[in-house]
Structures are given as C-alpha cells and as structure tokens.
Amino acid sequence: MSGKPRLTYLNGRGRMEAIRWLLAAAGVEFEEVFFDTEEQYEKLVKGGSLLFQQVPLVEIDGMKMVQTRAILSYIAGKYNLYGKDLKERALIDMYVEGIFDLLQMVLMFPFSPPEEKEKNLESMKEKATRRYFPVFEKALKQHGQDFLVGDKFSWADVQLMQGILEVEEKIPDVLSGFPQLQAFKTKMSNMPTIKKFLQPGSPRKPPADKHYVETVLKIFMK
C-alpha cells in the first residue's frame, strides 16, 4: 500500500465528499475504494475495519478512521488547516458545524419524496439566505481578510466553499444578496489546489443521481 490516504465509500458524495474536499484543498493525493453492494458492505463490517459499522472509512497514518468529524479534524490538524490556537480552532469548529447543518439539507434532498421536493427546496433556500449565509457574509466583512478565521486558509474556508457550490447547484441565484460571499467564492475558486479539484476528472463527485439514491437505499435502508 502506498503512503496515500485510502478512502472507502460509495462512488458518490455522501458523507465522504467533505473529506475529499479537505484533502484536495490541502494538496494531498488519495486513493479511493468504492463498494456498491450490500455484500461488499457486510464484508467490511465483518472484517472489523468499521468501528461503529459505518462508513466513511479513511486509512491514514496507520489508522483506520471512521466518523466524519473525527476524520476531518485529524486532516485539518495534520495539514495545518485548524487555526493557530484553541480560540481559532473553536471558531473554525463553530463555522464548520453550521455549514454541516446546511449541507445536511443538501445531502438528504435527493432522498425526498417527489411531492416534498419543492417544499424542501424552499426550506433550503430560506435557511441558506436567512440563517447561514448571513453569518458568513457578516464574518467576512467584519474580519476584513480573505479567510474566515485568522489570516490564513483553514478548514472553515474549505467547508464554506463546498457549501456554497452545493447549494448553488440547487438554487443558482442563492448568493445574489451576498457580495462578500461572491468575492470569497471567486478567490477560493482560484486557489491552486481548489481550482484543480474543480476541474473535470478530479475526485470530486457529481450530485446524487437516481442510481446513487437507489444504491444507498439498497445498502443502508433495509
């Protein structure tokens, strides 16, 4: 096995996408192993690699890590994306948790019954434009830096960039009232590691399609 982190998950975004984003933003190459059947998943569980019988699974530095937040925290700390002190780390954690709350709505949207999709989309737009994005718009304006925390690029910036792009896929004009976030998106898009991740052929996964939804339901929603 190479020294690259090894990611095991379905061939789709899900809870692994934030991990792909963070590794890519840190300039870290990684390997991916995909499964798409219940049998393959059960083999992972029986093999003892999944501490709580759940994926994502990331093998890094001799560890078999599970639980998305734990994995992300480790990556952020390892690659110096977690602030310079405890106060900055706490701020990064708060921002990241807020973005995760918003991304949870995006994550679950493809699994909505057809009759609820319009209502859920409206709820996503309302939460994004009234609860979450105003926080980051204000933070960037008051902070006066290119980044959310301190004077350097952090996990919070990566997570916000992912959040912006994935909400925009569902609501293209969602940033229309947020000039600071529009400028932030432009700056982040031009950072070399993120620019590379946004190019076709990168490990970034497309939005969930019908096949991905069916695969998730078949494996996990028995």
UniProtKB/TrEMBL annotation:
<dbReference type="GO" id="GO:0004364">
    <property type="term" value="F:glutathione transferase activity"/>
</dbReference>
<dbReference type="InterPro" id="IPR036282">
    <property type="entry name" value="Glutathione-S-Trfase_C_sf"/>
</dbReference>
<dbReference type="InterPro" id="IPR003080">
    <property type="entry name" value="GST_alpha"/>
</dbReference>
<keyword id="KW-0808">Transferase</keyword>
<dbReference type="InterPro" id="IPR004045">
    <property type="entry name" value="Glutathione_S-Trfase_N"/>
</dbReference>
<dbReference type="InterPro" id="IPR004046">
    <property type="entry name" value="GST_C"/>
</dbReference>
<dbReference type="GO" id="GO:0006749">
    <property type="term" value="P:glutathione metabolic process"/>
</dbReference>
<dbReference type="InterPro" id="IPR050213">
    <property type="entry name" value="GST_superfamily"/>
</dbReference>
<dbReference type="InterPro" id="IPR040079">
    <property type="entry name" value="Glutathione_S-Trfase"/>
</dbReference>
<comment type="similarity">
    <text>Belongs to the GST superfamily. Alpha family.</text>
</comment>
<dbReference type="Pfam" id="PF02798">
    <property type="entry name" value="GST_N"/>
</dbReference>
<dbReference type="InterPro" id="IPR010987">
    <property type="entry name" value="Glutathione-S-Trfase_C-like"/>
</dbReference>
<protein>
    <recommendedName>
        <fullName>glutathione transferase</fullName>
        <ecNumber>2.5.1.18</ecNumber>
    </recommendedName>
</protein>
<feature type="domain" description="GST N-terminal">
    <location>
        <begin position="3"/>
        <end position="83"/>
    </location>
</feature>
<feature type="domain" description="GST C-terminal">
    <location>
        <begin position="85"/>
        <end position="207"/>
    </location>
</feature>
<dbReference type="InterPro" id="IPR036249">
    <property type="entry name" value="Thioredoxin-like_sf"/>
</dbReference>
<dbReference type="Pfam" id="PF14497">
    <property type="entry name" value="GST_C_3"/>
</dbReference>
